[in-house]
């Protein structure tokens, strides 16, 4: 029993290393530079161990983005616990979340999925699941009920806006402009909610 537990722990550790190395690779090298060989090397595991856990690069990358996405949502929840509860603070928190390395890695995955039907199916599922989680968290943080007229659209527009801001941040540091837009949008959102 103890041996099985150690094997299970090692297996989880190997998967975690692979997923973290995959996200690092996506952020640094993009989709085309993220190979299973490069990921296994960065993770410090054998190619066989990598193939045991993930048969294809698409599986590996989708699992990595999902794993890091779930972790990031937990970090976002923890930050929300100690953050100020104003609309501005909530929008800023969500915007900062989207301006992270996770977004960069996910963006690489989305672009690759555009021309890869198998990967597209995985990404659509992942995007929907993470999108629902972040949407629900936004409702909770803003302390609003999306059955009220206009709330659902306002919260979804907020999420779409911060994704657009995160996209603008990919080529150059856009923090100053993002801060201005977040302040402006928070005032508009406050009036809507």
Descriptive notes:
InterPro entries: Homeodomain-like_sf, HTH-type_TetR-like_transc_reg, HTH_TetR. Keywords: DNA-binding. Residues 35-54 bind DNA. The protein is mainly alpha-helical. It has 9 helices and no strands. It has helices spanning 2-33, 36-43, 47-53, 57-82, 87-98, 101-113, 117-142, 151-168, 175-192. Helix 1 (2-33) crosses helix 6 (101-113) and helix 2 (36-43) crosses helix 3 (47-53). The protein is elongated and about 55 Å long.
The total of beta strands comes to: 0
What proportion of the residues is helical, as a percent range? over 70%
Rounded to the nearest angstrom, the distance between the terminal CA atoms is 55 Å
The largest sheet is:
none
Number of helices: 9
Mean pLDDT across every amino acid position: 87
What share of the residues does DSSP label as strand, in percent?
Answer: under 5%
- The value of Rg in angstroms is 19 Å
Uncertain spans: none
Give me the strand/helix succession.
HHHHHHHHH
Which descriptor suits the 3D outline? Answer: elongated
- Structural class, judged by helices and strands? mainly alpha
Domain HTH tetR-type: 12-72
DNA-binding region: 35-54
InterPro entries: Homeodomain-like_sf, HTH-type_TetR-like_transc_reg, HTH_TetR
Keywords: DNA-binding
